[in-house]
Structures are given as structure tokens and as C-alpha cells.
Give the backbone structure.
Amino acid sequence: MVRRRSRRRLDSQMGQPPVVKNNSPALHHTIGFCLAVLWMGTQVFRLGYQELNLLQRASLLEQEKSDVAALHHELRTEIAAAKTNAGVERLAREQLGFVMAEEIPVKAVGTAVVTETRVALAQPTARVAPPAPDAAQRPPALAALAKFFMPLWR
């Protein structure tokens, strides 16, 4: 009778190591656990980043709120000052160019209306240099160019 040997035994006799299949569920569980931890870590990082952005936006909004409150207070005081006689006179002089009866308006090129009380007609009036435009009204690029070119024009 011929005796048949198993495949594993034949392979081990020929010098080849037997092939071992690892079908253990522990490896699958470990890989799944690692993937779950990785996913949760990315979610925690994303939520932390969102919270940081929201806190920065909240601080910017608080700063803007305080600026608006300061502007509101300034406008309220300006309105209260404009309701007085001195405030009305100041606004009429500055914005409308009104003068009193005993004053002579003197206009200089590029400036607002300047009023002087009549002292003597023989005195020559000095030429007033035009004021530099407010740097806050310029865009930042023009302000940088103006800082460079203004000494050249004078």
C-alpha cells in the first residue's frame, strides 16, 4: 500500500517553510482601532482649529463693538454741542462759510474760508500754504507714495 504524505510534511522535508495564514481577528481589531483613533484625532484637531478661529472673530467683533460705542458717544456729544448757540455758530462758520458782519472773509487757494476781524486795511495779507491732505483719507498705497514724493514737490 502506498502511503500518502500530507502537503505540509512534503514541504517541510523539501526545505520550504510551511505557509502560515494569520486569520486572527485581533489584527483586524487592532487596525480598526488605530483607524478610529486617527479619525477621532483629526476631528478633535479640526474642532480646536474652528474654536480658535471663532475666538479670534469674537475678539475682533468685541473691538469693533467698543469702537462703535466710542463713535456713538462722540456723535452724541457733537449733537449736544450743535444744539447750543456756540455750536450753531461754529458749524455755520466751518461748514457753510458764514461770517459775522464785522469780519472780512479771506480765501486762500486750497484751504477753507479764513475770517479775520478788520484791524487796518493797509496791512498786506500773508499767503497761507495749503495744508497737507489728511493721511488717514488716503489709501495705504497712496500714503506710502505721498511720503516719498511730498519732499520732492516742496
